[in-house]
TrEMBL record:
UniProt keyword Hydrolase, yes or no: yes
Superkingdom per UniProt: Bacteria
Protein name: HAD family hydrolase
Cross-referenced Gene3D superfamilies: 3.30.1240.10, HAD superfamily/HAD-like
Amino acid sequence: MDHRLIFLDIDGTLLPPGDMLIPESTLAALDCAKANGHRLFLCTGRNHRMTEPLLRHGCFAGAVCSAGGYVLCDGKTLVDIPMEPQQAKGVRAALERHGVECTLEARDATFGGVKMTQRWSFIHQKNGAPLNSEAERWRKAMEEGMSILPLSDYKGEPLYKIVFIADHESDLAEAKRLYADQFVFCESKLDSLTDGFVNGELINRKFDKGTGIKAICDHLGCTLADTIGFGDSDNDLQMTDVAGISVCMANGSETLKKRCDRIAPSVYEDGIAKEFKALGLI
């Protein structure tokens, strides 16, 4: 296969949701793909702070962080688009008026409240089944304290993304009415729950994972036909829709599977390494 730019979602794709250690077999596949001349990039909803430990592996040339709001390539910042302060304040208030719990993602910190931690723990105990990858990541982060600062520590740092969890989809109605023209409400129903819980994230309409990929292609003088995108959840749609070859993990959402060119084995079954081999990358 000709040299490709390979974009990898993290949670539920590169590694199990909420984990920080890449499995050895996956890391070996990444290193082999790099040695074969391919360039590897993380493409994630995680902010830079939560992505940076993985970037320390020498196989990665950069990353699309914060779902496209912060993009790095070869040590250079290509995209840096935080929310406008009043915009962030307004949409957060519209959510909180209806009891929607939020975490706030700046570039180098994530802020979450005590109620958010309690809600994730409650849902996991009640559900008793695997959550979607974003929900599982946040449940794990909240329970283990992974890079989460108290909401009281937030001092107005520029925000790139707001993650939310609502008791009912209707609790999002006011925020959607006021801000749907400015944000994509990327929502996921919590698996096997029947009483309306919704988790998701607000992604600024000024960017998405797809625009992040385009920025890297432009910087490197490559075309989208040269790219391969790997994902597992609905927040990967903008990535896989622009990629030359789109791949959904077997553990991924049904929506994404229908839109992708290929389905790789599960993240729990050495899926990246196996799909790299199937694609002729290694």
